[in-house]
């Protein structure tokens, strides 16, 4: 939970009133047609029927707005450690947009300056954030990071916002591509054991969190039990951690996918602590070069992220 200063909240309130006043004075130039929408955050908003300047509060929200065919405001937020939108996002729709850092620290003043007429906010776990955003524009807040399949909340948002046809079009296209890749894997007799593996603070780790596990499952791949087990062998979203002395336990995995930075740096096979470890060097996927990096922003589910990771897997396994 981030605390906003009283001065910031007061500024937002005053500025929002000013924007409302300006909009009202514009007369027929501003649409007043709205529909009442009950959001997952328990708030009823007056959603513009034809929004023309929507803002996605987190990067994945921007991608969802594009997929749902909702026009964007000219300024959109990105993560503080990004300088632009992920390269796997639809670049044509993003061309010419200005950006500002908005995560992990929030910049509500910049959100206000973007003058959105609608906000899509997937950070529903942040208490009180919705109330601040409602001062700026009608905001649909939901929790995109609750550990569930992100497509469930995306589908519900599409229904609530009157864009289910756009959601269905994306879903149909994605499922058709999954079926195509699966058929190619079957035809080639390719059926490896796969896992999402990362390295952090001296430990290797696997996890079922996010897009990789969803894509593995959609493709019907053999997912390493290590991704789904805690120290007692029970399913766990946090997966399993391995110390440097336990790396040999990864020997049943044939292919790994691993998150890297925006510029492609940080590949797990470049970690000196691992490359100097005998157990790591004996692993089959290390010796066979079956280690594939992907932009870590793909983990946090969005339409383009899901599709991009699907293509990453297809390229890795099929060449």
From TrEMBL:
Subcellular location: Cell envelope
Transmembrane segments: none
SUPFAM superfamilies with a match to the protein in the record: Helical backbone' metal receptor
Keywords assigned by UniProt, alphabetized: Signal, Transport
Primary localization: other
UniProt region (Disordered), positions on chain: 26-45
Signal peptide region: 1-26
InterPro entries listed in its UniProt record: ABC_transptr_periplasmic_BD, Bact_iron-sidero_bind
GO biological process: one example: iron coordination entity transport
Gene3D superfamilies associated with the record: Nitrogenase molybdenum iron protein domain
Keyword Transport on entry: yes
Low complexity bias spans: 26-39
Presence of keyword Transport: yes
GO CC annotation terms, alphabetical: outer membrane-bounded periplasmic space
Domain Fe/B12 periplasmic-binding: 53-319
Family to which this protein belongs: Belongs to the bacterial solute-binding protein 8 family.
UniProt protein name: ABC transporter substrate-binding protein
């Amino acid at each position: 939970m981030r605390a906003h200063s009283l001065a910031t909240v007061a500024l937002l309130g005053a500025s929002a009133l000013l924007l409302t006043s300006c909009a009202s004075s514009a007369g027929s130039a501003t649409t007043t047609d709205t529909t009442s929408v009950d959001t997952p955050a328990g708030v009823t908003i007056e959603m513009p029927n034809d929004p023309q300047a929507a803002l996605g509060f987190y990067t994945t929200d921007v991608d969802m707005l594009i997929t749902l065919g909702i026009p964007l405001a000219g300024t959109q937020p990105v993560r503080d450690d990004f300088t632009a939108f992920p390269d796997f996002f639809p670049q044509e729709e993003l061309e010419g947009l200005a950006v500002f850092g908005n995560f992990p620290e929030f910049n509500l003043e910049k959100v206000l300056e973007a003058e959105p007429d609608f906000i899509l906010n997937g950070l529903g776990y942040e208490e009180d954030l919705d109330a601040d955003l409602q001062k700026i524009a009608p905001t649909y807040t939901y929790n995109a990071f609750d550990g569930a399949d992100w497509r469930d909340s995306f589908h519900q948002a599409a229904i609530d916002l009157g864009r289910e046809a756009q959601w269905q079009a994306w879903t149909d296209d994605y499922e058709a591509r999954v079926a195509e890749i699966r058929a190619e894997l079957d035809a080639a007799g390719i059926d490896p054991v796969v896992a999402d593996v990362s390295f952090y603070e001296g430990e290797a780790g696997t996890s079922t969190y996010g897009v990789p596990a969803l894509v593995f499952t959609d493709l019907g791949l053999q997912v390493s039990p290590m991704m789904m087990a805690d120290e007692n062998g029970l399913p766990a979203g946090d997966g399993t951690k391995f110390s440097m002395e336990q790396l040999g336990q990864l020997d049943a995995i044939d292919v790994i996918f691993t998150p890297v930075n925006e510029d492609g740096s940080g590949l797990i096979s470049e970690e000196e602590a691992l490359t100097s470890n005998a157990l790591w060097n004996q692993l089959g996927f290390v010796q066979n070069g079956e280690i594939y990096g992907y932009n870590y922003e793909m983990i946090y589910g969005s339409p383009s992220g899901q599709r991009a990771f699907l293509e990453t897997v297809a390229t890795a396994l099929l060449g």
